[in-house]
Design a protein that fits this description.
Low-confidence stretches: none
Oligomer: single chain
Order of helices and strands: EEHEHEHHEHEEEEH
Strand content: 15-25%
Strand order of the largest sheet: 2-1-5-4-3-8-9
Structural class: alpha+beta
Number of helices: 6
Largest sheet: 7 strands, mixed
Number of strands: 9
Helix content: 25-40%
Mean pLDDT: 96
Length: 187
Amino acid sequence: MSNINTQIPDFTTEAFHNGAFKKISKKDVLGKWSVFVFYPADFTFVCPTELGDVADYYEELQKLGVEVYSVSTDTHFVHKAWHEASETIKKIKYPMLGDASGKITRGFGIMIEEDGQALRGTFVVNPEGVIKTAEIHDLGIGRSAEELVRKVQAAQYVANNDGEVCPAKWKPGNSTLKPGLDLVGKI
């Protein structure tokens, strides 16, 4: 069952962010665009490449009014230790949410129950807390932050331009489509 156009789950959790621990809840997420990047575990292999890639695009996402939240079923303490141990993870300036209970991961529907870990899931969430995109990968397949930025831009464009849609590979400045009978069979 798809979670597109559904509300993100209620949550309150501890995060590691900018060298400190802080509580983050659904209430903190509402009011601006956000991206949730779920990954299986800290101190692993593909995960740091993905989180480092998102860190490289974080400033661009911030300019779009987006906050990024990385989430694994590790604790905020483990996030801190990983941040201190890994040169790649040291680049991260976005909040790293601890989800040791798995409540957030289950709420997004991507928990691997037998392992107590998340699938690789990326969700773009609008300011009302509604999921607009969902990308879920098997554990061995990394994601692209460049494509994530494009998806955010498309989601924001569609939200601000009623009746228009973004075709494949759309980027800001490219033509959009206005669905109607006149386009049926002509694309």
